[in-house]
């Protein structure tokens, strides 16, 4: 399985590449986002992106990928004081982030969790034809993990799709952040409350902010009757 590693620190790239290759991954290295974006048919299963890079940084690369409909999962590498960049990255559609310095074992574990999450949805789409879900002005198609708003297809990441599916299966129910994490990511022990908040903020922008109500001190509620 191919991993794209985009970082301007050569020593870090070499260390991460060596560790991933020992786990059986095929690693393609890039010094900056521009190289990765122009790679053409590399088609990695996952991107590992540094945030601060010359020529094109990780945030810009992620934005370009999502703008052209590329839903490949992304893990950001960031320093501990890059709080704004971490949150912005999640809002743009990143799946996870790690603070430098990080444990190589933790990085490998997170990669495997995310790839397992994506492959499980692909397998479900091939083996089980679930009926569509409809609420307000939305339609969700579990078998193809796609969704529409007023007949127009929404560009959702797998993370956003899982959250929307959980909400639509539990209309008008107050769901805690812990419930949303467990329902959407049963195999992921790393996802935290802040990450869920960022993904929901991004989902609200796509489906309409009035459809997901904040339940203060608890979590969120999907308001099915609102349009």
TL;DR of this structure?
The chain is α/β, with parallel strands linked by helices and 227 residues long.
Protein described:
By secondary structure, the protein is α/β, with parallel strands linked by helices. It is built from eight helices and twelve strands. The chain has helices spanning 10-22, 33-37, 58-67, 83-92, 104-127, 158-169, 177-184, 193-207, and strands spanning 2-6, 26-30, 46-50, 74-79, 96-100, 133-135, 138-141, 146-149, 152-153, 174-176, 212-215, 219-222. The strands form three sheets. Strands 2-1-3-4-5 form a five-stranded parallel β-sheet, sandwiched between helices. A four-stranded antiparallel β-sheet has the order 6-7-8-9, covered by helices on one side. Strand 3 (46-50), helix 3 (58-67) and strand 4 form a beta-alpha-beta unit. Helix 3 runs parallel beside helix 4, helix 4 crosses helix 8 and helix 6 (158-169) packs across helix 8 (193-207).
């Amino acid at each position: 399985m191919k991993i794209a590693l985009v970082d301007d620190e050569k020593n870090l790239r070499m260390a991460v590449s060596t560790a991933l290759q020992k786990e059986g991954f095929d690693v393609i290295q890039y010094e900056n986002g521009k190289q990765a974006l122009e790679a053409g048919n590399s088609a990695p299963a996952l991107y590992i992106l540094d945030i601060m890079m010359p020529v094109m940084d990780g945030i810009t690369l992620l934005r370009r990928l999502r703008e052209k409909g590329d839903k490949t999962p992304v893990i950001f590498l960031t320093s501990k004081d890059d709080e704004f960049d971490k949150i912005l990255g999640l809002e743009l559609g990143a799946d996870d982030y790690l603070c430098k310095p990080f444990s190589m074992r933790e990085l490998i574990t997170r990669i495997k969790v995310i790839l397992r999450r994506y492959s499980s949805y692909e397998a479900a789409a091939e083996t089980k034809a679930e009926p569509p879900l409809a609420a307000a002005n939305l339609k969700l198609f579990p078998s193809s993990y796609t969704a529409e708003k007023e007949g127009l297809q929404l560009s959702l990441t797998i993370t956003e799709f899982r959250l929307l599916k959980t909400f639509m299966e539990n209309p008008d129910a107050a769901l805690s952040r812990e419930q949303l994490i467990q329902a959407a990511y049963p195999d992921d022990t790393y996802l935290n409350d802040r990450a869920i908040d960022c993904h929901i903020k991004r989902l609200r922008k796509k489906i309409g902010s009035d459809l997901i109500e904040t339940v203060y001190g608890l979590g969120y509620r999907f308001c099915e009757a609102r349009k």
